[in-house]
Amino acid sequence: MQSLKQPIPPVRGHKQKIEHCGWLRKQGGRHRNLRSRWFEIKGDQLYYFKDNTEPKTPIASIPLPGNKVNKHPVEAGETGKFKFEIVSGKDKEGRPVSSNHETFLLIASSQREMEEWICAINRIIYAPVGGGMFGRSLAETVKFEMRRGGGCVPLIVYKCVDFIKAHGITEEGLFRLPGQAKNVADLKDAFNRGEIPELESSRAEVHSVASVLKSYLRELPEPLIPYDYFEVFLTAARCYEMRQEDGIVATQNQLKTLPQPNYILLRYICRFLHEVQKHCEQNKMTVRNLAMVFGPNILRSGSEDPKVMMESTNLVTELISILIRQHELFFPHTDDEDLQPQRQHAGNDVNLNLIDFSPDYCRIPRPAPLASPENEHEDDFAEDPRSQIQELENELELQQQQIKDLQIKLEQERKVREMLKMRLEDEQRARESAEDRLEKLQAAMEEFCAKYGSWEPTAR
C-alpha cells in the first residue's frame, strides 16, 4: 500500500466551497503510524491538513475523479476502526488513473462517519457520469439529466415510482415497512455509480424500492421544501386551521415561490401519493399515514432543537395531508408538464432554459385554481411588479386579519376573566355577610342565656 503525495493544486482551489470535512486517521510517516488528520473535500480534490486551525496549509491532496472507494469489513476484536480506502481506477487500457498511488487507507471513528465520508467522496467520483445523486442537490441532478435528454423529475424517482405503481401499490405497509438492507444498499450503490438498474428484470422487492425512494428524498441537502420556506409554510398551515379559504390562498402563494425543480418534484410526489392512498384498504396507507412518513422529507426545520421539531410535527403532517388530498387544487395541470421523463438520446433538442438553475431561481407560473374570469389574462407574477405589490398587500391584509382575530379572541378572554372576577367578589361578599349574621346570632344567644339562664327541655 503506497502513500499519496500529490502536488498541491493552485491556491484558487482552496477557496472553493467545502463539500465535506472532519477528522480521519491515516497511515503516515517513516514507521507508518496512524495519525489523525483534518480532511476537506473541495472541488474534485480531498485535501488533508495537520489540524483545523487557521490558516491551514494542506499537507497533500487526493484526486478523486476516476478513482473508487472500497469499504473494509470490521475485523473481530477491533473497535473504533472503520476502514475504507480510495483505490486508483483503471482507464480503458487498464492503466491506473493515478500513476503515483494505488490505494489510500483512511479510518473513521464510527460507522455513520464512514458512511458519510464514502457518500461525499462518491458524489465527486461519479458526478461526471450522473451518479452520486444521494446527497446531491436537486437542481444539479435535474440540470445534468436534462443535458442528457432526461426530464424534470430525477430518473431515480421516476424509476422507483413507476416500479411501485406496476408491482406494489397495493402492498400492505408500503413506505412504512423497511426494505431488505442488502437490497437497498445494492440499489443505492448502483444509482450512485450512475447506473440505471432495471428493477423489473431484477425482480426488485417493492419495500426495498420504496426505501430507496425515501432515502433519496431524505438525503437531499435540503428538504423538498427548502429550509428558508419552513416558517411561511407553517404559517399557511395555521391559517388553514383558522379559516380554510385563507389557508388555501396562503399555501398557493408560497408554492409559487418555490424553485422550479422543487415545485415540479413536489407536484409529482403529491400526485403519486394521492394515487397510493386510493388503495388504502389494501396497503393500509391513508393520506395521514403517508403524510407522517413523507412529511419530514418534504418540510422540516433546519434547527436541531427537539422542541421545535416536536411542536412542528402535527402542522407539517397536516400541511402535507392537504397537499396530497387536494393536489389538483394546488398543482393544476399545465400544457408543458413533463411528468414522464424519458431518456431522449438526441439530447441536443433539450431546452435547458425551461428551468432556471441560477441561485436566484425563477418563479414558476402562478397556479390559479381560484381565479375568476376577470383576471384570466393577468400578467405572469414573476414579470409584473404590480402583481408582486398586490401579493404583498394581500399578505399584509391577511396578517392584519389574523391580528384582528387574535385581538377579538383576547378581548373575549378578558371579558370571561372579568366575569369570573365579579362572581368571585359576589361570593366573597356573600360569605362575609353570612359570617356577620352568624356573629350577631351568637351574640344574641349569649345575651339571652346571661339574662334568663340556660334553657333545657323538661323530661316528660
Describe the model.
The structure is a single chain. Helix 10 (287-298) packs across helix 11. The protein starts with 17 loop residues before the first strand and ends in an 8-residue tail after the last helix. With 460 residues, the protein is an alpha+beta fold. It is built from 13 helices and 7 strands. It is 47% helix and 10% strand.
Short characterization:
The chain has 13 helices and 7 strands.
Shape category = elongated
Report the uncertain regions: 1-5, 10-14, 338-354, 357-384
What Rg, in angstroms, do the CA atoms define? Answer: 33 Å
Total number of β-strand segments? 7
Distance between the termini: 123 Å
Give descriptors for this structure.
460 residues; alpha+beta; seven-stranded antiparallel beta sheet; disordered N terminus
